[in-house]
Design goal:
By secondary structure, the protein is mostly beta strands. Helices cover 0% and strands 26% of the residues. It has a single domain, classed as YaeB-like (Elongation Factor Tu (Ef-tu), domain 3), CATH 2.40.30.70. The model is unreliable at 1-19 (pLDDT under 50).
Length: 165
């Protein structure tokens, strides 16, 4: 039986959202989930100090170099499409649970789950961008604050025009 990224049973068809794990099931410290890059960021941003906190704060366009085995997954993407690019922020700290938000240095520390800090237990980055060009296995996107060689773990269409936080 397969498991999805949230650890719920995918194949048995009777998984319930929020259900407790069955007795004897491996605990959080022993469960493992596999995330494979589907693309890699090609960006002029090479160092963390160069990257803005958010794409809309002056991030440059960047290319997503898609893995050859993922060609079928990008076949209907077009210039002008809005997408969410999910990245694995591989240079982020994973032991930080609280931080002061970058846009309000006078704030008391907040739990990282209420911020967009890259430093978090599972450093998944969410970047809203517009596709500028698609050239073979390369997708150019606007305003991407991810560093060069950051792994891309998914690309999703924007289906609701509500601005993501």
């Amino acid at each position: 039986m397969g498991e999805d990224m949230a650890g719920s049973r995918a194949a048995d068809g009777n998984a319930t959202a929020g259900a407790r794990a069955p007795a004897g099931r491996a605990g959080p410290a022993t469960q493992r989930y596999e995330v494979r890059p589907v693309a890699w960021v090609e960006s002029p941003l090479k160092q963390l100090a160069q990257a803005p906190n958010q794409g809309r704060e002056g991030a440059p366009p960047a290319w997503l170099a898609v893995e050859p085995g993922m060609a079928g997954a990008i076949r209907v993407l077009r210039a002008g499409d809005l997408v969410l690019v999910l990245t694995w922020l591989d240079r982020a700290r994973r032991d930080e649970l609280a931080c002061v938000p970058g846009d309000d240095p006078t704030s008391p520390p907040l739990g990282v789950f209420s911020t967009r800090s890259p430093n978090r237990p599972n450093p998944v980055g969410v970047h809203r961008a517009q596709i500028l060009a698609v050239e073979g296995l390369r997708i150019q996107v606007s305003e991407l604050e991810a560093l060069d060689r950051t792994p891309v773990i998914d690309i999703k269409p924007v289906v609701d025009l509500v601005v993501e936080r």
